[in-house]
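Input sequence (120 aa), recorded before submission:
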Amino acid sequence: MTSPPIQGEECFTSIWNGVCILSNIGASERATVMIEYGYDEFPALALVLTGQEKYRVVRTVSDAAEILISDWPTNEGEEYITAIRACLDAFHQVVPPTVVRTALIRAANAVRISHISVVC
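Predicted structure, token format:
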């Protein structure tokens, strides 16, 4: 990790922390994260959702985060918030990807979304 830039100083850095590349284009810009594929995988899980894609297979933390943010029927509830936090923690390698899977299952149960384990 590097220290934060001094106010008004332009900062052009990329930091590799073993999981992702954190790029900070400038002191006033937001940092962007590029996820390295493969690190965030867990045993596949199929969710039965309503909408265009009735069945969604979730294999990675990125898949779980996308479903929670874009396709989840509600953005409230303790289990939903816990699942979102688990995704963020997994992106930062605070928890393993399996914690995200468990949190996603609990969030699905809370809103009565059916799910099954998928054997690939």
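Checked by second reader. The longest helix spans residues 78-91.
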